Amino acid sequence: MNSEDNNYCLSITGKTKLLGVIGHPVEHSLSPVMHNAALAKLGLDYVYLPFPIAPENLETAMAGFAAIGVVGFSVTIPHKQAILPFLSEISPIAQAIGAVNTVTRQGNGWVGTNTDVEGFIAPLQTTYHQDWSQKVAVILGNGGAARAVVAGCIQLGLAEIHVVGRNLQKLSQFRQSWQNSIFADKFQVHYWEELPKLIPQANLLVNTTPIGMYPHIENSPLSVDEMEYLSPNVIAYDLIYIPKPTRFLQLAEKQKAIPIDGLEMLVQQGAAALKIWLQQEKVPVSEMRQALQNHLGL
């Protein structure tokens, strides 16, 4: 811990308000780095902490958070869908997606929403000005993160959206869970074996699986052979941000794809969450981004 970190820690008192992130594992999370940088910039008496919560302890942890007055928290793998039954209110976008990544204490209950959609589309809108209505997306994985990506692709107006999974039962559940949603007919689901015909069509290839995440950094959701189906100039987007670049993006770049990692999505979804927790419209996004870049040595 450097002297700057030490000074910051010494400022924490019994009045300091608590924010955090829950996940399992959660030690890899960079959310504390960017959020604490933003809170320091704003001069607020808050601290943002990582909370490793095993799936079987989720309900107990939330009761504990209520007891100690946690203001709000981020939600990451594997809790984005599991947390739904423990919330007293869920925003329309989170209901449509069926997954929550941001929770806020209101009154005697917890309110959940999803800022992953905003985070996902931000780098696509700011960096790649194109007619998305002519594009095809192939999404790897069918968990909570995939749900936000589907919603983001729908918002962008992509012509075709294909979701690909390995587990037939989970893929079927993914499809069925959208039946009463406004997004029900906007995408198709496919088994992994169909990738050879899907990948060549892709203009946007998104990895929403945890495959390749620290500490298993040598892994990729697609093999070298599967990645060879990729056309040049496809946008390959990995929601993972550690390591940088992931094995998935390394393989994609060898096929002359345009890489996007999860760092900007992390920044933008985090900024949207911070606005909710602090109930203010402006947060220091540039400081959040810079803190992450400094931490990663970029």
From TrEMBL:
Catalytic activity: shikimate + NADP(+) = 3-dehydroshikimate + NADPH + H(+)
Molecular function, one GO term: shikimate 3-dehydrogenase (NADP+) activity
Catalytic residues in the record: 80 (proton acceptor)
SDH C-terminal domain ranges (all copies): 262-293
Residues binding shikimate, per UniProt: 29-31, 76, 101, 116, 241, 269
Pathway named in the protein's UniProt entry: Metabolic intermediate biosynthesis; chorismate biosynthesis; chorismate from D-erythrose 4-phosphate and phosphoenolpyruvate: step 4/7
GO cellular component: cytosol
Residues bound to NADP(+): 141-145, 239, 262
EC number(s) on file: 1.1.1.25
Residue ranges annotated for the Shikimate dehydrogenase substrate binding N-terminal domain, each copy included: 21-103
Enzyme class label: oxidoreductase
Pfam families linked to this entry: SDH_C (PF18317), Shikimate_dh_N (PF08501)
SUPFAM superfamilies referenced in this protein's UniProt entry, alphabetically: Aminoacid dehydrogenase-like, N-terminal domain, NAD(P)-binding Rossmann-fold domains
Keyword tags: Amino-acid biosynthesis, Aromatic amino acid biosynthesis, NADP, Oxidoreductase
A Gene Ontology biological process term: chorismate biosynthetic process
Family recorded in the similarity comment: Belongs to the shikimate dehydrogenase family.
Subunit details: Homodimer.
NCBIfam families, per database record: aroE, PRK00258.2-2
Functional summary from the UniProt entry: Involved in the biosynthesis of the chorismate, which leads to the biosynthesis of aromatic amino acids. Catalyzes the reversible NADPH linked reduction of 3-dehydroshikimate (DHSA) to yield shikimate (SA).
Protein name: Shikimate dehydrogenase (NADP(+))
Gene: aroE
